[in-house]
Design a protein that fits this description.
The complex is a heterodimer of chains A (190) and B (504).
Chain A: H1 2-13, H2 33-39, E1 56-57, E2 69-70, H3 79-121, H4 137-150, H5 152-189
Antiparallel strand pairs in A: 1-2
Helix pairs in contact in A: 3-4, 3-5
Chain B: H1 5-24, H2 35-41, H3 46-67, H4 79-91, H5 100-109, H6 137-147, H7 154-163, H8 172-196, E1 199-200, H9 208-215, H10 218-234, H11 241-265, H12 267-272, H13 280-283, H14 288-310, H15 312-332, H16 339-359, H17 364-386, H18 389-395, H19 400-403, H20 405-428, H21 435-457, H22 460-483
């Protein structure tokens, strides 16, 4: 198990230089793992147990605050299930990209704003005791308003797209659930 | 959207309690004892631990997220520290609004120092010294090396900063000795810890009631039912307990539906705001389909109950309210500031529903009670959102407090004064006796005064004061209206409802 584990690990860690995982949990590599890693550099590397039949949800990502999900691929996956899984994975990646960008941009612009304001006032970034200077909430409010106004259309587009995807995923889930129920019902009939 | 005052206080109380505990310093050997490690000792005292962790998390978040560009203290591998705290957050109480004043205070006190400390790590509390910020490059390197493996050095470092760490009587030799030891342990421990944070996405039946309660925002639903009950009680008809009960249940179910759909729409936004991080859909405790199914399962019986067992007007109002909340207010939050007015309307409809449930008609009296809620909503929400401007801005929410601050203050003041005007309408519309405007004048004046202070000063304190006032103002107002309700004489000429007018 050791060699296979390490091979599996090395394969997935080729994409990104992350720490080698010496965990006991490793027993299989899901096929979606490399894709996932390619798309999300900072996501935690976790491999669920082989006998698990469910998806796994992880802790919130540091940058996007969204929780990554590792989707379980069943042996005889139907077309519908595959479609759903791919849609969910894709939406997750898209969401992660948007929010990472949003949060990082926000923080960068905020810091830049603080620095520029302090410079304007002619105050150093840190005071005598080495503490970082911050602006009061009124001064920051200017930045918050500016940020919102600047990104108005971007946010609106994101909203539309998110609603669309959310509906699509839920509809697909509904269809799948109905399909499964129907199948169960039909089987019981027989 | 609504927030109880207690949650803000616990953070401060927790902080003060834990700081006091630290000062006591039980069994403190020569090692520096971080508050966090001490709290691990007193792990049994869960409530304090939770609140301190909560506060701690707030500190860490502000320090790391807003300043990670500038701080070089911690190496890029910050995932461990973040996820460590996230893990604890998962197990802790529901997230509450970031108390900006507390965080800001901490931030102000934060000192940037090259503090090298290897903090306590699991399995057991391992105390390593803190180096005071003296130039000792030879010692610092191995510790930094240890820190660079991504141990949660931030947290105790933050703690140190905020506690104004001066009492470290550290011994340097211990550091170098312990550093490699700690490094190995931390790696494995961290891996294990990170792995533990992954949860299987399956529905736990035992957790379901709690999940449903949080999905439906049960506390908010309860408040909505209370306002509907107030509307019912204010109606000038004999009190019918059966209709009252059915109307309350129906309103409650409709509110559950609206809240569930709202959470279903807002998953990524909720993940990014501290107040809403622990919602069931964000945590993946149920699937989106499950949430929609729950909403439908609440909505259909609720609306049917209202339409058939109470009356069609109430049912129609219930359906309208669900539509307004889910399809108008929720998307509008991110599009334009008119969301606040729609939200005020959404809040005003339940008392109207209560009234129509009792009388069966849409009287001016119903609209009066509704307008109490409508006017109250603005000082309440505007003051609340004043202190959440950063979160709203980052999340992309378009609220008056961020985009039109002057209007925000004006509207809050205007509607606080409007409360007085609406109270005066009470006796004119035969809903209450003339004592009501007099009796409600003190509280109305007080909230108007606070709104005026908010209008003039527009700072955090005045916003908070106004918000807390609004929390007790509404129940008091409704209670006073109830006690000053106009008495009606029944067909036999007996007084069916009493007007408990205080002896003037």
């Amino acid at each position: 198990m050791g060699v296979k584990t390490i091979k599996c690990l090395l394969r997935s860690s080729v994409c990104h230089a992350m720490r080698l995982k010496l965990s006991m949990n490793v027993s299989r590599c899901s096929s979606s793992q490399p894709n996932k890693l390619e798309n999300s550099a900072k996501r935690l590397q976790f491999i669920p147990a082989a006998d698990s039949k469910h998806d796994w949800i992880g802790p919130p990502n540091r940058l996007s605050n969204l929780r990554p999900i590792i989707y379980h691929v069943p042996e005889n996956e139907t077309e519908l299930e595959k479609k759903l899984r791919i849609l969910r994975q894709e939406t997750e990646n898209w969401n992660h990209a948007f929010w990472t960008n949003q949060n990082v941009t926000f923080n960068n612009e905020k810091n830049y704003f603080i620095l520029s304001q302090l410079k304007e006032k002619g105050i150093t970034e840190r005071d005598e005791k080495g503490r970082k200077r911050t602006l009061n909430s009124e001064e920051m409010a200017v930045f918050y308003k500016h940020f919102l106004d600047e990104n108005c259309s971007r946010h609106a587009n994101y909203n539309k797209e998110w609603y669309r995807r959310n509906f699509a995923i839920t509809l697909l889930m509904g269809r799948l659930a109905f399909h499964n129920l129907w199948g169960m019902f039909a089987q019981r009939r027989r | 959207m609504y927030k109880t005052p207690c949650s803000r206080l616990t953070g401060l109380v927790g902080a003060s309690v834990s700081l006091n505990l630290k000062i006591l310093g039980k069994n403190a050997p020569r090692y520096y004892q971080s508050a966090r490690s001490f709290l691990q000792w007193s792990r049994k005292d869960k409530s304090q631990w939770i609140t301190y962790q909560h506060l701690n998390f707030l500190k860490r978040q502000y320090v790391l997220k807003s300043n990670n560009e500038l701080y070089q203290r911690v190496k890029p591998k910050q995932t461990a520290s973040v996820t460590l705290l996230e893990d604890q957050q998962d197990e802790s109480v529901v997230r509450q609004i970031q108390d900006e004043s507390v965080v800001r205070q901490i931030q102000d006190e934060s000192v940037v120092r090259q503090i090298q400390q290897v903090p306590t790590i699991e399995p057991g509390p391992v105390f390593v010294k803190v180096k005071p910020p003296l130039p000792q490059p030879d010692i610092s390197t191995p510790v930094l090396g240890a820190a660079s493996t991504g141990m949660p050095a931030d947290i105790p470092a933050v703690l140190e900063r905020t506690s104004g760490n001066t009492e470290s009587t550290s011994q340097t030799e211990a550091v170098t000795l312990e550093a490699p030891h700690v490094q190995l342990e931390t790696d494995e421990a961290r891996e294990a810890r990170l792995d533990r944070q992954w949860k299987e996405l399956k529905v736990e039946l035992a957790e379901l009631p709690d999940v449903y309660a949080r999905l439906a925002k049960i506390k908010l639903t309860a408040l909505v039912v209370v306002t509907a009950a107030a509307g019912f009680a204010m109606a000038p008809v004999p009190f019918d307990p059966v209709t009252f009960f059915l109307a309350s249940i129906g309103t409650g179910l409709a509110a559950c539906t609206a809240n569930s759909i709202n959470q279903y729409f807002e998953v990524p936004f909720d993940s990014n705001m501290n107040r809403t991080k622990n919602r069931p859909l964000v945590r993946g405790q149920i699937s989106p389909l499950h949430a929609v199914g729950f909403a439908v399962a609440c909505g259909i019986p609720g609306l049917t109950l209202l339409t058939l067992a109470v009356n069609p007007i109430t049912g129609a109002l219930g359906a309208l309210n669900i539509f307004l909340y889910t399809c108008c207010y929720t998307p509008l939050k991110r599009i334009s500031i008119t969301n606040t007015w729609v939200g005020a309307l959404v809040g005003a409809i339940p008392p109207i529903m209560g009234w129509t449930a009792a009388t069966g008609t849409l009287d001016p009296g119903a609209l009066l009670i509704g307008s109490f809620l409508y006017c109250w909503q603005f000082p309440h929400f505007n003051s609340l959102s004043w202190n959440l401007r950063e979160d709203y801005s980052r999340g992309g929410y378009r609220m008056m407090s961020v985009t039109h601050p002057a209007m925000c203050k004006r509207v809050a003041l205007r509607h606080s004064l409007g409360l007085m005007a609406v109270s005066t309408l009470g006796p004119m519309l035969d809903v209450t006796s003339w004592t009501f405007p007099l009796v409600s004048l003190p509280i109305n004046l007080y909230i108007s005064y606070l709104a005026f202070q908010f209008y003039r000063k527009a700072d955090r304190n005045s916003a908070r004061k106004l918000f807390f006032c609004s929390l007790w103002h509404l129940p008091m107002l409704l209670l006073l209206a109830l006690t000053c309700k106009k008495s009606r004489t029944g067909p036999e000429g007996t007084v069916t409802t009493q007007s408990l007018a205080p002896a003037a």
